[in-house]
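Why does residue order matter? Because the sequence determines the fold. Keep that principle in mind as you read this record.
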Amino acid sequence: MRRLVPGVVLLLLAAPAAAETRQLHGIKGDQDQRVRMVAQEFPWSAMGRLNFFSGHCSASLIGPRLIATAAHCLWNRRTQKPFPASSFTFVAGWDRGEYLRASKVTAIHAAPKWVLDGESRGLNSRADDWALMELEEPLGDEIGWIALGAPQAGMRVAVAGYGRDKAQVPLAHVGCRLTRQALPGVFIHDCDAVQGESGGPVLGWSEGELRLVAINVAVIPSQGEAGVAAAVDALRPLALRLGAATSTRAGPVSKPAGMDLSQSLR
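Structure:
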């Protein structure tokens, strides 16, 4: 376990915080179904905070040096330009200032059809709300990675990330569902997830193991706070060329999971 120096920790707290859960978009009912996970346990260890100057998103290791996140996380609202790769640091297993491993980002590959201009776009653009990032360090060799899977309507999933209300610990809603496919490459889910969890993994049981089946990207407040996820099908060809793994693997520094996700997600 490693610890960041206090000055850096304060910088990483810049993401806005909500005072009460009921003020957060993305919570579906009266009770928040997100549960705090153990950051050192796989697969949560392969998820991390994607930190940048003005806040954070969430992301997942899908290969030794490759992470997947949401494309809208690339936009710098202050400068009205995309962040350069050097602005990002992926911190795996982050938990209240402690973490497993961290690496700077060296290259960004946004979806070719995604327009980086900071504009809020409709549901039909969300299939392209994904980005792949290459890391300076091969964190996956030590932590492990989550292979890409195939989403299906009705599939039980777990949606995880670092929400703005509890940004220092990993949270997940386990056993919710991809309720329907809204458009090609776009799924609606009923999982609790809020701002800050953008780019976080939507995990499902696929091909006999736990896999990343989609990326959490948005909420529709007018539809009961329904969640929106971008299927990984579109990013798969590029991801494989960049070194994405073909099967899920826990690394040596990750602890075994405390819960049996195979039972919760099958």
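The two ends are 32 Å apart (CA to CA).
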